[in-house]
Amino acid sequence: MSNKKQAKKGIMICGHGSRDKDAEREFGLVAKGLKERFPDLPVEYGFLEFSAPNIHMGLDSLVSQGVEEIYAVPGMLFAATHAKNDIPSVLTTYEEKHPGLHITYGRELGLQDDMIEAFQARIYESLGLDPDHPPKNLYDTLLVVVGRGTSDTSANAEAAKLTRIVNENMGFGWADTVYSGVTYPSVGVGLEKLMKLGFKRIVVAPYFLFTGRLIKRIQGYVDKVAQENPGIDFIQTPYLNDHPRVIDAFQNRVEEIMQGELQTGEETLMNSFKRRLAAGEVDVHHHHAEFVDPQDDTQGLSEFDLKHAVISMGEVPSISVLKNHAHDHGHGHSHSHGHSHSHGHSHDHSHGHSHGVYKHIGHPMGPRTMIGEGICCCFMSQFTDEILEEEKDKIDGDCTKTAFAHRR
């Protein structure tokens, strides 16, 4: 009989982060809910950017508690750039710097039944209906699902798939998807197009875990459209937050790791990351995905980073760029992000944040409709000179002008 001591295990939830402190608090509620499901295991959480604790700090806390095997799950709805690239980069680098530590990275929440049922419950609640005793149909109502919107086509498609599933489950008269991020159609212009269908009751349901600037922007769009269209009843569904079925979904992802169910014939997020990084197919935004302790001058790029710091355009950023977490993100455009910009956009951005390149950035119903409303400057950096010239009346930091999506 073996007397080998079993490694102490712990759980790490990896989030994106938000400038909104309410979002940080709500993420903590999910960690609290998961702790109740696993009372015998340490549970920590951390963020890629904007918020504290960051992922590095959460991992440090687990290690300080004697944890040697970490079950890490992305606190994200779909697998886009952050879940596919940035979080695995942080986890891999951390693991290399801590011999004897083993980190297993699980799946995004995805379209689990628990997530779909949580979303449907929120919609029923906003309509004043009992989720346990729903009506047979809602044929008189239009459902508009608001997805995050990313440069990742598959993640955008998952949001559209969700819309179809929920529509058939709940029996709406019609349903469609709009997006608050880099893809199209944007919330404002999407709503205007859909109002032409003639429905007198429209449910706007954001498929988001937590509050934040995007949620508040969505609410602002809906309020504006509602004021301009008093004959239509607009119903805003609350975001998912710590709904019990959401906690169930997180629990499922942790238990998949525990039970060794990740290898089911499909490539895991971590294996995919390592394969693509080694092949030079990954653009890792180290300036926000890697935490470097400013008090630790021995901490630099890991051996993994130095061997594989190859990005999709074949450019290798300098060591100083990869180390500097808070580097100046000015768009002059001499920096190397694995994508190039030919325009003369010269805003100075020091927010340490980035998005993948989106080939339809100039779509007439996409992010350009949000220029002048505090759109993320990483999107702004992708607009061509031609687009910036066409939208110049909405640039220069004037966020008081009417959005393109709401102009008549």
From TrEMBL:
Record-linked InterPro entries: CbiX-like (IPR002762), Sirohydro_Cobaltochel/CbiX (IPR050963)
Biased composition (Basic residues): 332-344, 352-361
Region (Disordered): 325-361
Matching Pfam families: CbiX
Key words, A-Z: Lyase, Metal-binding
MF-aspect GO terms: lyase activity; metal ion binding
Top-level taxon of origin: Bacteria
Entry-linked SUPFAM superfamilies: Chelatase
Annotated protein name in UniProt: Sirohydrochlorin chelatase
Source species of the chain: Marinomonas arctica
